[in-house]
Design goal:
Number of strands: 0
Strand content: under 5%
Order of helices and strands: HHHHHHH
Length: 227
């Protein structure tokens, strides 16, 4: 009688995983930087009447689609490695990334609807455009500001505890997350505007955390976990 032995588990190539995750983190960083400036024509008074081109907003929408895909991709790439060091936090990170990607795509839908409104015309277009811009602003605040803070708290905690990367990197995210959450609250309550200098300042530590994590993962990969 032949005994069927269990097949050995295939080990994850952690170096390749780290490289892919790092590349995707850099893509999320680079894709997110120019979008607000590319969308600036949408907020001009004469946009619906045909003033200004649509190339920049269209490029911004395309970049945000790339951003959404890469956001989900970072979590998919990292999950097999980080879940061994914190199952609940790793699943929370994956969930936050998926929600972030979904909200980004909802915002892109609002932009595409606004571009269609300019192309085809519509009764009471100005009021409709105002609603679409408000929807985009809301999805931006929730998707590209609130969710990254939650991602930093979940992923940053796993990486800090495990030592998979130098602890100064997740420490930046863990310090930056409450600052960004406070900034989000200030924007929600009207203390300052979304596109103000204070809003940008509040997002800087999280941007630094994501950039430094991406660069480290590409250059060095994961370290041996701490006991």
């Amino acid at each position: 009688m032949t005994t069927l032995l269990p097949r050995p588990e295939r080990k994850t190539d952690s170096r390749a995983t780290a490289r892919w995750a790092g590349v995707l983190y850099l893509v999320t960083f680079l894709a997110s930087v120019p979008t607000l400036s590319l969308y600036a024509p949408l907020r001009e008074d004469g946009f619906l009447a045909g003033t200004g081109g649509t190339a920049a907003p269209t490029a911004g929408a395309a970049l945000e689609v790339v951003l959404a895909i890469s956001c989900a991709g970072t979590a998919i790439a990292l999950l097999p490695v980080i879940r061994r060091h914190g199952e609940s936090l790793s699943v929370g990170y994956l969930a936050a990334r998926v929600v972030e990607a979904t909200l980004i795509l909802v915002g892109v839908g609002s932009v595409l609807a606004l571009l269609a409104l300019r192309r085809d015309g519509f009764d009471d277009a100005d009021a409709t455009a105002s609603v679409l811009l408000s929807v985009y602003d809301a999805t931006f605040l929730l998707g590209q500001s609130l969710m990254p803070a939650l991602c930093a708290l979940t992923l940053g905690t796993v990486l800090y505890r495990s030592g998979l990367v130098p602890r100064v990197i997740p420490a930046i995210g863990l310090v930056g997350a409450p600052l960004l959450l406070a900034s989000d609250l200030a924007q929600l309550t009207g203390v300052y505007e979304m596109r103000s200098a204070l809003a940008g300042l509040g997002a800087l530590p999280i941007a630094a955390w994501e950039l430094s994590l991406g660069v480290w993962l590409i250059a060095r990969g994961f370290r041996t976990p701490k006991a």
